[in-house]
């Protein structure tokens, strides 16, 4: 292939970096992925301890068609690498009155809504029909654009759909057109909590996430979520991609307006182009010379970030009754917790939290008779913690779990590890220790996000959750594809 003489470096081996590497290798480039940690996979990697296998980051497998389309682009299928299982119920929501299970079947879900609020069953069908239109319009017309400028969106079909997808209506108002019961509203607002803004500040466009959740279903790759990046790594290597771990980039060398090399403590690599799939802020503010940065620190300070998280990876020597694979503990005030994340950033007083127990589905992630638990509290970015503070929240969650299940998991812990802002920074160079990238507010949508293409360095493109299309596993995979395509176009246009 004619591009084999050109060498591309991909900084970071998360979902967007692995995606970009695969597409560039398919186009014939030499590709080297440089990863600072000792294992590739970014936030999607796993680790083993005391017989348990813990997914370190993403645990929700939504939008399965995006992952399938990725592998199909290389003549493969997800089935070539792992087995997917649809979860039913998709998840359990604990509320003050008990709990609600969200069935995989939408007719059963409609019946559930009707049992909570008269007329809500039919309202749900209308709501999800609209959400499906937004999803298909968004995926077809918006998400797969590099968003270099507003003019990409000046297509007549796109302009017509702008009003139908409700980009200028907020999510809170939109939901209240259909439902009144606070329990239903909270169920439908929960995906928004992880999009990085309160429902009243999130465009109603993002009800497309409810379609992804309730219509497309919640899935799980047997063996753990890390099976996905592991499959991408295997694919990348089969395409000739070289992946170097323990290889943090410390300097980007620029001649004129082109990167000529990337350097680390023990290496120097001559390159013809770079995909920056590690933290955008870190690459810009740390690795680039000041005159080659397109944003200054005040710009980044003005960005609205999505939450960080306080995580616990826990191994138990007993089974826990009364929980499903995915569990949302929503028996505290949603509004108060959201205010303590977004309006008045502080450690939450009475947090909502998420409990993942993959051993309910998968015997391979825990020893026999044991349980694998992953706990997550969404919290404001930029906070600090110490062991005492983390233990405070550990105990609050354990108390809530005991109230709902009758078992005090503190008496059964054989392994425990916490992970918060400080680790997000040390492991991923994450800006302000954020976990989910930029908030999906109207003013941080599409071409209003940090640009994928560097304005000052012609052969530098960014991918990942701080640029388009946004945070999440499927958008990150798409981001890598977009960045690879745009870099390829640029290199072909050069003399």
Report what the structure shows.
The structure is a single chain. The protein is α/β, with parallel strands linked by helices. It has three domains: 2-83 and 224-303 and 439-493, FAD/NAD(P)-binding domain, CATH 3.50.50.60; 106-216; 305-428, Guanine Nucleotide Dissociation Inhibitor, domain 2, CATH 3.30.519. 35% of the residues lie in helices and 19% in strands. The chain contains 15 helices and 19 strands. It is globular, with a radius of gyration of 22 Å. The relative contact order is 0.18. The model has no long low-confidence stretch (mean pLDDT 93).
- Uncertain stretches: none
> How many distinct domains?
3
Portion in strands: 15-25%
CATH superfamily of the largest domain: FAD/NAD(P)-binding domain
Arrangement of strands in the largest sheet: 7-6-15-16-17-14-18
Distance between the termini: 18 Å
Give the number of helices. Answer: 15
Radius of gyration: 22 Å
Total E-strand runs: 19
Structure classification? alpha/beta
CATH architectural category of the largest domain: 3-Layer(bba) Sandwich
Largest sheet: 7 strands, mixed
Per the CATH scheme, the topology name of the largest domain is: FAD/NAD(P)-binding domain
Name the overall outline.
Answer: globular
Mean pLDDT: 93
How much helical structure, as a percent, in the residues? 25-40%
CATH C-level class of the largest domain is Alpha Beta
